[in-house]
Amino acid sequence: MAVLTTALDTPLLARAAAGRLLVGGEWREASSGERFAVVDPGNGAVLADVADATVDDGLAAVAAADAAADAWAATAPRERGEVLRRAFDLMTAHRDELARLITLENGKALTEARAEVGYAAEFLRWYSEEAVRADGRATTSPAGGSTILTRMAPVGLSVLVTPWNFPAAMATRKLGPALAAGCATVLKPAAETPLTALALADLLTTAGAPPGVVNVVPTRAAGPVVRAMLADPRARKVSFTGSTQVGQLLLRQAADRVLRVSMELGGNAPFIVLADADLDVAVASALVAKLRNGGQSCVAANRFYVHARVAEEFCARMGAAMARVRTGYGLDDGVEVGAMINERARDKAHGIVVDAVEAGARVVTGGRVIGSSGFFLEPTLLADTPHTARAFREEIFGPVAPVATFTDPDEAVAWANGTDAGLAAFVQSRDLSTALAVADALEAGMVGINRGVVSDPAAPFGGWKHSGLGREGGHEGLLEYLEPKYVAVSW
Ligand code: SIN
């Protein structure tokens, strides 16, 4: 299959575009010899083709990780930290190339892709520093007479399953803590965006990750390959970012082997604008909360609840700001919102707009599918959206902002909490004590006050309710890859 060498023209990108599996330190073809195409969502062109891992390849990766596991677990924490730190430096040095690669295979605007590379690299830096802080503790038992020694061991071979929306950051958010804790890994990237994962693995190898510690198996057969890896007695942990539906499936599979799990699943984030909000701040925050990554993020603001006193002004300003946003091919100058990942995602988001309008919502701006090739939807603001519309019930995962008004903040909180999802939420108010009270009442793992982004490698990212289990980022993210062992000691 033809590879657009002009787009993937540096040694790092060309190696990624060779599209081979990484198993036990070797770049190899799939055992079936099959390959699959990676498509640029901005124009539909084939970028490269990639080896299509089979169940046997997945199990070979597990075997390779198992062979490397003991030595990696025994490596001094400082040394593991230094591998991660060198990988951070390499990612930073290759930032522009990696950003281009992300834009090409994911469709997001180049500025967003550069931001993602910075964000992704920070997970490696954070966990290079955390590697030496996998502390246990020694305490005296309450009855006296013995010491409770709590030590931390790596949880073991970790299967990491990552999505296409942040192909670099979701990989480093899992690889960073796993490697820092001393776990060997098998990474199964999304079939839409395998090239970024291959480039990252290349850099981690250059940074000194020993053969077998990082294995990468892109595949179109995600279900059978991941199921086989989780069923293998050598696997001890699965970390997944993606839909709640697939997360539930993996949880059932993990239950059979009582695997440790980290699940970062779907969101349906409310964005509440209280009557006293600073509207300049509220609109700037809403814009980024909605349009970061074109709305294709599980922490994207999904439902806007705006106090009736400020709703008209908010919609007017937000509509004008959204209308100014330049949507187009991600590599083009000045583009702020790129393509959606594929036709299905674009059509789903557009269908949500159509449904809302049929239910009585008013289009303030946007609403149309655009572009003759690639998958684009105009940034869309919908006022007066009925609560029954799909826009309020489903995770939109696109650049669509439905607004409803409230008069009683308790009503807004009740609407916000009226969902199984509980990942992120946002509150806008000039009064910090009011905002904190609302934040306390929200059933969400993360709340942004007077801002539109909560993501930070140093913070515990994760959800309540159906939005997931466990945390990624922060010290909490390291604990996900550690198993405590309590030793009772008579001193
Ligand atoms: C996600 O959408 O899954 C993650 C977004 C983030 O880390 O900011």
Commentary on this structure:
With 491 residues, the protein is an alpha/beta fold. The protein folds into 2 domains: 277 residues, Aldehyde Dehydrogenase, Chain A, domain 1 (3-Layer(aba) Sandwich); 188 residues, Aldehyde Dehydrogenase, Chain A, domain 2 (3-Layer(aba) Sandwich). 41% of the residues lie in helices and 21% in strands. It contains 16 helices and 24 strands. A 7-stranded mixed beta sheet has the order 14-17-18-13-12-20-21, sandwiched between helices. Strands 9-8-7-10-11-23 form a 6-stranded mixed beta sheet, with helices on both faces. Helix 10 links the parallel strand 12 and strand 13. The longest helix is centred in the N-terminal third of the chain and has 21 residues. It is globular, with a radius of gyration of 23 Å. The structure holds succinic acid.
CATH structural fold name of the largest domain? Aldehyde Dehydrogenase, Chain A, domain 1
Low-pLDDT regions: none
Q: Name the CATH superfamily assignment of the largest domain.
A: Aldehyde Dehydrogenase, Chain A, domain 1
Query: Between the first and last Cα atoms, what is the distance in angstroms?
Result: 67 Å
Provide the structure class.
alpha/beta
Helix fraction by DSSP (H/I, runs of at least 4)? 40-55%
Largest sheet: 7 strands, mixed
Strand order of the largest sheet: 14-17-18-13-12-20-21
CATH architectural designation of the largest domain: 3-Layer(aba) Sandwich
Q: How many alpha or pi helices?
A: 16
Under CATH at level 1, the class of the largest domain stands as Alpha Beta
Q: Count the beta strands.
A: 24
Mean pLDDT: 97
Total domain count: 2
The coarse overall form would be globular
- The proportion of strand residues reads 15-25%
Ligands: succinic acid
Radius of gyration: 23 Å
